[in-house]
């Protein structure tokens, strides 16, 4: 399963690295792709939406509703 999140606070490569490093270790996440220009995060795998959104919040990059 693949889910795309709009994350308005993404602005640079550092943001990208922080999000990728924060989401990849989650159980059920098989791939994380951050698009800095589009300000999106695509997460592939079986991790729950709540788990992904919660982690993004903890990292300081909340997903838009």
Task: Please describe the structure with a list of short key phrases separated by commas or semicolons.
single chain; Alpha-Beta Plaits; 65 residues; alpha+beta; three-stranded antiparallel sheet
Task: Write a structural description.
The protein is an alpha+beta fold and 65 residues long. The protein has a single domain, classed as Alpha-Beta Plaits (2-Layer Sandwich), CATH 3.30.70.100. The protein is built from two helices and three strands; from the N terminus they run βαββα. The chain has helices at 13-23, 49-59; strands spanning 2-6, 29-35, 40-45. Strands 1-3-2 form a three-stranded antiparallel beta sheet. α1 packs across α2 (49-59). The longest helix is centred in the first third of the chain and has 11 residues, at 13-23. The protein is globular, with a radius of gyration of 10 Å. The two termini are 19 Å apart.
List the helices and strands and how they pair.
Layout: E1 2-6, H1 13-23, E2 29-35, E3 40-45, H2 49-59
Antiparallel strand pairs: 1-3, 2-3
Roughly how much helix do the residues carry, as a percent range?
A: 25-40%
How would a textbook summarize the main sheet?
Answer: 3 strands, antiparallel
The number of domains is 1
CATH topology: Alpha-Beta Plaits
Distance between the termini: 19 Å
> Would you count the extended β strands for me?
3
Short description:
The chain has helices at residues 13-23, 49-59; strands at 2-6, 29-35, 40-45. It is an alpha+beta fold and 65 residues long. The protein has one domain (2-59): 2-Layer Sandwich (Alpha-Beta Plaits).
């Amino acid at each position: 399963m693949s889910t795309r999140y709009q994350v308005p606070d993404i602005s640079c490569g550092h943001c990208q690295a922080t999000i990728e490093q924060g989401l990849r270790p989650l159980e059920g996440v098989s791939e994380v792709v951050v698009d800095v220009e589009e300000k999106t995060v695509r997460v592939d795998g079986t991790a729950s939406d709540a788990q992904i959104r919660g982690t993004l919040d903890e990292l300081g990059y909340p997903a838009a509703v």
